[in-house]
Amino acid sequence: MTTTVAPNDVTVLLADDDMEILRVLTKSLEKQGYSVHQAHDGAEALESALVIQPNVIVLDVMMPELTGWEVCKNLRSRDEFEHTGIVMLTAIGESLNEMTSPLYGADAHVDKPFNFDDVSDAIAAVLLKRCGVSVLLS
After folding, report:
1. CA angle 79-18-59, nearest 5°?
2. 48: which of 12, 74, 86, 133 is 20 to 30 A away, CA to CA?
3. Burial class (CB within 10 angstroms; exposed 0-12, middle 13-18, buried 19+) of 46
4. Where are the domains positioned within the chain?
């Protein structure tokens, strides 16, 4: 069964060590109505996820402290993140992403450079897959 919610009912954690990517993604997602939190490295992403318990986490792969893959694997080992969608955001290449993302438990990946619609579509898809939630975007 699918439940339809407004974007402001969805919490997204963005984790990237590139401040410009965080800025533009946050602005784009907040404009759509999502509640957005930021993390600047892998350790902060893991800590924030444990505290915030977001609906979706968008993780850059290559970050200081912990990689996005390490954060993803850690979260997937915890029962409380069973219904949390995880999207990997990376420039390592599409074919490598397609092979690696499922190994660590990621639901989707978006390749850099990206357009905002790809990220938004990935978030919507993982919400539907993991939570049975459809987001009503205006």
Report:
1. 20
2. 133
3. buried
4. 10-130
